[in-house]
Structures are given as structure tokens and as C-alpha cells.
Specification:
Two copies of one chain form a homodimer. In chain A, 44% of the residues lie in helices and 11% in strands. By secondary structure, chain A is of the alpha/beta class. Chain A is globular and about 65 Å long.
């Protein structure tokens, strides 16, 4: 049996989404076909609309539909803290964690093996923030992998030229995590970063 | 921080999909925004296109873009076997399992508690197939739950009026399944349906 062409095409397209394999794409495709006409259209149009209206903020690189974005224009946020993240979803995570300073979003998944990526890495937003003279501390919120480590050092070198303090998120045990299941590097870093309990 | 409106709307829309929760919807939304313009549009258009061009086959109820569908018009398939399924994804599963007869797709998730569902259940496709006189055997491929059980009996009563043999898929241990993890009803049915090993 061959599937109807438009359904086959839909399933192919849905497989482009992250974490959606062939079986799941088929399930989603059949689900979309069962939806009332208007509702399926609303999903398709939300994709088109978001693609049309959302762009990276020229100041910080975070996703926005206004220029500059709502974070850059928020006067109540601290102007002396600058958090560097790899992409927009990390910004959402930092916001949920209660951070209320400025951001620079690199929005570039770097591949250490690809020298082109390095040459093209755009640090202009970071530099112009540092030049503004308002920033007192750069907080590196890059993923704790080798790429993140290397980018962190590059950025730290830049920031130090401006006499700015550079920090990074602490490594350690995740809250609720079990010590017996922690990998040894995490545990070693949790030990090195141990804190005194103040009574 | 508020998300840009079009992104918020996209995430809301994506949450309508089955198995996509808020976190996953956010991840998919951000992924779609990072895709090149053309690729995101291709996904949206595949949804619109499929909704426009695919409909239930008037003869069997399976999803199709031709009328009647490619299964109903395939002369090489057995005309004397009629398989009754609940929806189009069950047809795909039966095809993968090697079944090469005809289908009737009920395409209606019945809810035993809702008497309206019963009144509205459309058995016209099934009846017109039975009236054609070609069908020798009706194979019930309905899910082994209470609803499936009740529908099976209703359909069996219909088919028997036409003097047609009615069978259903065997219950038993799934292939590769472990006996110690089988529930007792499955195991009892596997025992009742035990087969002689022929050497």
C-alpha cells in the first residue's frame, strides 16, 4: 500500500522536527488530518507567522518581535550584569531561574572541529556591550562541554581587556540528584566548590 | 520576560499535538525559528496541503487522495477478505503485517459512556460491502479493550445475517514478550489459544 502523496509528504516534513522519528511523524500526521480544518490551519499559520515576525534582537541576539527586545529596553533590569548564552532557549532557562540582567546570545552551535565556525563567530554584540562601559560582570552561562569551555575562555579573554569581572555558572550536584549516580568529574567539582554552612 | 507574541502563539499551537507538552512545544518552536525560511514554510504548507487533499475513501473510509482509494481499486488484493479497523493508523499496521485484503475503517473513537456515539456510528460502508456478496470473511482488527469488544459483537451480529464468517485477531503473548511480565488475562488467553507444534 502506498500512502496518499500529500500525507507521505507531510510525514516527511514532520520528521525534520527534533525528536520526531518516523513512527511519531506518522502519528502526528494522522492526528493533523483528523483535526477540524480550522485548527490544523491555525498550527500551520502560527509557524508561518512566527517565522515572519520574529528575528534576533540587534542588541543582544535574543529572539524578539520588537527592536530592540523587551529585555534590552527594560529599565528595571540590572545593566551591570551581562549573561552570555549559546541560544535563546538558554535565555528562557536563565529567566526561569530568576536572573534579571542583560544578555548576549551567541546563537551559534559551534563545532570545534570546524575552523570556519571559529572564524565566523560573531562577537560584535558582546564587544559593543563591553565598550558601553556599563557592564561590571560577565556571567558565562555556556553548556559545560568542551565547546562551551573553549568559548568561555575566548570570551573571558575579551572581557578582561575591558577590566570586567568574568564568572561562570557553578558546577556541582544537581538539586535532587543522588551522589551515587553523579559522574566523577561533577562530583570532583562539587567537592572543590564546597560551601561552608552558615548557621 | 514575556516571549514575543508570535512565538508564544506558535508554542500554544504546537501543544495541541499529541504527546507534545509545554517544554517540548517550546523546543520545537525555537527549532522552527532557527530553520531556514523555506524549510519552515515547507512544513506549514505540507499541513495545509494534506488537509486540503486528503479525505476518507467513500468505499472503505481509509485516508486517501483518490476516490476510491488505492486499496479499493487494487485488483490484485483479495476481494473475499474484509478487515474492520478503528482508524487509518490501524490500516498501516495491518499492511505492515502483510494483510492484502479489503478494509472498512470505522474512523470513530467510540466512547461507551456516550450513547450519542452509538447512535451515530456509521456502519453503512460495512453493510454495502456485505451486500455486494463478495465478502467471505470479516476479520475484526479492533483494539482489545472494552469498546473494541462491544463494537466487535455489534459487527459480528451484522455480518452473520449475511452468512459471512467472522474472525478476530488472536490474543496472546506479544512476540519477544516475557511471560513473567504478561498480565493474567493475556496469559490466560495465550493458554486457551495454545497451538500444537507441528514437526
Amino acid at each position: 500500500m502506498r500512502l496518499p502523496k500529500p500525507l507521505e509528504h507531510l510525514i516527511e516534513q514532520l520528521q525534520k522536527l527534533p525528536g520526531i522519528g518516523p513512527k511519531n511523524a506518522q502519528r502526528l500526521g494522522l492526528f493533523l488530518l483528523r483535526l477540524p480544518q480550522g485548527e490544523a490551519e491555525a498550527i500551520a499559520e502560527a509557524i508561518l507567522e512566527a517565522k515572519k515576525r520574529i528575528f534576533p534582537c540587534p542588541q543582544c541576539g535574543n529572539l524578539t518581535d520588537t527592536s530592540p527586545c523587551s529585555i534590552c529596553t527594560d529599565e528595571t533590569r540590572r545593566q551591570d550584569l551581562l549573561c552570555v548564552t549559546e541560544d535563546a532557549s538558554d535565555v528562557l532557562a536563565m529567566e526561569r531561574a530568576g536572573y534579571r540582567g542583560q544578555y548576549v546570545v551567541l546563537e551559534k552551535a559551534l563545532n570545534l572541529m570546524d575552523i570556519q565556525d571559529w572564524a565566523n563567530m560573531d562577537l560584535s554584540r558582546l564587544k559593543s556591550r563591553l565598550k558601553s562601559g556599563k557592564v561590571q560582570e560577565v556571567i558565562l552561562a555556556l553548556n559545560p562541554d568542551i565547546d562551551g569551555e573553549v568559548i568561555s575562555r575566548m570570551i573571558a579573554a575579551q572581557a578582561m581587556q575591558f577590566g570586567v569581572r568574568v564568572t561562570r555558572l557553578a558546577h556541582g550536584l544537581p538539586v535532587g540528584g543522588d551522589i551515587q549516580f553523579a559522574d566523577e568529574i561533577t562530583l570532583r567539582q562539587a567537592l572543590e566548590g564546597r560551601k561552608e554552612i552558615l548557621t
